[in-house]
Amino acid sequence: MPSSISSSEPRHGSRPDADGDLERIDGATAGPAGRRLAIAWLLALVLAAMLLAAWEAGWRDRGFAPEVTDSRQLWALQRDRASKPGDSWPAVFLGASRSVYGIDLPTWREQAPTQRPVMLAINGHHPLAALRDLAEDEDFAGLVICDVDSHGLLPRYWHMQQPWLDYWQRDWTRAWKLHRRLLTPWQETSVLARPDLGLWPTLKRLATGQHDGHRPGYVEHQRDRTGALHFQRTDAAGLAAHFDAGAADKLVAFPAPSPAQWLADLAPVEAWVATIQARGGRVVFVNLPVAGRLTELETRYMPRPDYWDAFAARPGIHALHYLDVPALRALPLPDHSHVDAADRPALTRALVEALAERGWLAADQVDAGAAVLVR
Questions:
Q1: Has residue 8 got a pLDDT over 60?
Q2: How many helices (H) and strands (E) does the chain have?
Q3: Which of 23, 152, 342, 345 could form a disulfide with 126 if both were Cys (CB 3.0 to 4.6 A apart)?
């Protein structure tokens, strides 16, 4: 029976009913229904958590592991670090896939503890736009390791990384920074954060009968934008044939300019280098190892003495070729273009030692016994 009182002031927790009397709305009547609702929500959450845990476990049982997805946002975070003031000297890696999947930043930090390594290389894209951007950035005065070959220095490729720079300069907002900073730990924690393991891609594979064949790939990425290639998971010989065919196509499709024209075209590049080095920075061009028909790009297409060596002889230019470094020349390249994940530390140590031997690491000096850079 609803309780009522004769006072004109309603009690807390009561309300008038249709007849003007007061009825309780506290736990005396609403409590059981509220508890049932709370229990229902709790059970739903527990069930959802169990389903997600089972989904996670299923993918892990098939060999999948959490992985950070590279993106323009992740690149922009690293671009911020390149110009960030601090006690450590930035060592910025520009280039394409050979840097992304060849340079091991933890090893670089061990060898050069006073430097702040930053990976700005982009898979499949030559780096000249990024070099120009660093030259135009008055806050940048660090070391640039620019991974590129003679062919990649052709002006037709200078724009390739410009979309990443446009994003960083125009669209990189605080909201996107927060989004990326929250997304990365999630991707490092759960396989369900992988785009290929989401609900819709999974449903699509199920609908097309491709789900059972979905297995982990041979490529992985980290939050620092470096990657690793696990060739034991794929057909390395097939990849080598692919790169050989691509080299053969370049030999036919793009006649090389004359050495004199090629050097003349590089005048702006020399100016960018001079600008960075005038601020106290240093730029080193690095030609990383290749094998198979890719070597023909420097024997038949753009012979090294006429192109790379001529550029290296220009005033203010520092250029390292892998053929001049036995440790780099000896590295196995399963696909003729990249080292395996297990050889990334060896490549990185060989590169540090080669640059240090030539005095191309600014004011740093090398402990000859440990090859560790100290300022």
A1: no
A2: 14, 11
A3: 152
Q: Give the per-residue SS3 of 4-27.
A: CCCCCCCCCCEEECCCCCEEECCC
In angstroms, rounded to a whole number, what is the distance separating the alpha carbons of residues 144 and 92? 5
From 73, 79, 131, 123, select the one nearest 101 (Cα to Cα).
123
Q: pLDDT: is 153 or 365 the higher one? A: 153
| Tokens, residue 272 | 């960018």
Q: Which residues contact 364 (CB under 8 A, 6 or more apart)?
A: 112, 114, 115, 356, 373, 374, 375
* Residue 26 to residues 1, 3, 6, 121, Cα–Cα distance (Å): 15, 12, 20, 63
- C-alpha 244, offset from chain centre: 26
Q: 103-128 pLDDT, tens per residue?
A: 999 999 999 998 999 999 999 999 99
Gyration radius from the chain CA atoms? 29
317 touches 339 (CB < 8 A): no
> Hey, where are the domains in the chain?
14-61, 72-374
Question: Distance (Å, rounded) from C-alpha 155 to C-alpha 175?
Answer: 35
3 state SS of 95: coil
